[in-house]
Amino acid sequence: MTRADVCVVACAEAWRGDGAILASFAGLIPRLGARLAQLTFSPELLVTDGEATLLRDGQVEGWLPYRAVFGMVAAGTRHVMMGASQLDRYGNQNISCIGDWHRPKSQLLGVRGAPGNTVNHPTSYWIPRHSPRVFVEHVDMVSGAGHDRGAHEIRLVVTDLAVLDFATPDRSMRLRSVHPGVTVDEVVAATGFSLTVPDEVPPTREPTAEELTLLRKHLDPDGLREKEVR
What we know:
The chain is an alpha/beta fold. It has one domain: Glutaconate Coenzyme A-transferase (3-Layer(aba) Sandwich). Helices cover 25% and strands 22% of the residues. The chain is built from six helices and 13 strands. The strands form three sheets. The protein has a nine-stranded mixed beta sheet with strand order 4-3-2-1-5-10-11-12-13, with helices on both faces. A two-stranded antiparallel ribbon has the order 6-7. Helix 1 (3-14) packs across helix 2. The chain is globular and about 45 Å long.
């Protein structure tokens, strides 16, 4: 078992219990997580190839043209796992620019679909490098709304170190679990704001034998997931 395996399973858990909704994702680890969830504990989950085809066990299950995705977004029948260049304690996301948006130091993707995603349906995040540069006190520009700005539901944040959620009275970020081999102090040190830390923080669950077999022999036999996690 590797850290990447744990991260895939942690991402899969974000879709547990969602039923027949569309799972969308940015990045290899979330994609593997969605497919793993569909093959194990969330068989009703709808998973695409990222273009216009619905897949089940690698086979074409149906057609989902891009225009139809907007209807699913508006109806709330989608759960996306996005990336973020910056995240704050309430789950406000920045993928637009670093620095003052009038004269940014770095121009990034732009807001893209983040506003509509965060106000219409569940949103989670995958952060492959947990650091104070990503987890900041205030994002430079709000691309995706957080809980203090009317987000529908920011569910989980999965990183290379831990899983975080928003199960606090003010819906700010909380440490939910630490990956095997990671300490709570390491996560706190890598977070640029005051994180809610329970008295007892459990380890992130490890993949089952079945999940490891699916990952290694079926979903990612070339081990590409190892390149996304340090």
